[in-house]
Structures are given as structure tokens and as C-alpha cells.
Amino acid sequence: MKIVFTAALLFIGFTMFGQSTQTKNTTQNSTVSTTGSSTTNPKANSLCKTWYLSQTENFGDVHKPTDQQKGDLLLLMDGGRYRIIMNGVAEGGTWSLSKDNLWISFTSDSSVVKKFKIIESTDKGLKVDYRDADEVHNILYYSIDAPTQTKVK
Predict the structure, then answer these.
(1) Is position 53 within any domain?
(2) Hey, CA dihedral for 83, 114, 126, 32, is it positive or negative?
């Protein structure tokens, strides 16, 4: 009886540890929840352009960009990279669009994450909601048209 029991244990041990350790390539069947690449998502593709800040809205009051914000822009590049100038401060990193096409997530090269909620998106305009560090909602209006510079005489 001991021999049968020992043989059974050895058989079970060999079958457990004799399994292949190679992993299967399952990327063909997996779904991606976010994308920064335009080749997989037409919505992400439509966002890949340079957006210039045209207006801001705080507590229902719409304003033109302040002197500090005049050069602000958002550049979303194909391949998932971005460059943003916000309140005169430049930043770069990677961006992704949520599966429901509602949130743009920005991860800076220093690993700081920002999220914009898309309120409205057209070929020529982008309206987003951004919560700053104080949790205040800032509605940012972007346009593909560069602002005109007025010269003082």
C-alpha cells in the first residue's frame, strides 16, 4: 500500500511541476481601457492637434485668458505624448483617453497625474473641466485657432 501511495504522490508531483512555464500571447484577445494612440481610437485621433486656450470659466464667469495664461496651449500628439502650458508653466508626458471617451489623463514626466473631463469636443473647439489643487472646477475652452497678438503703440 505504501508503494502505491508513494507512486501516486510522485505522479501528482511530476504532473504539477512538469507543466510548461511558457506564457501564452493573449494580447490578441485583450481589450485596452485607455489609449493615447490615434490608430486604435478615432476620438483620440480627432484630439491630436494643438489647442490654444481661448477662454476660462470660474463659477459661471467667462473670462479671456489672463496675462499669465496668454501663451497657454495643449498639444496632444499621436503616439500618446503631450505638451501643455498651463498658467505659463510648461509640462510634458504621456496622455490617454478613457474607454468612454470622457476623460483625458495626463501623466507628466515627473509622474504627476492631471485629468480633464471632456464637456464638449468639436473639430475646432475643446471644452474641458479641470479641478485644480484646491478642488475648484475650472472650465477651460480651447480652440485650434492661435490667438492674435495685439501690439501696443
Answers:
(1) yes
(2) positive
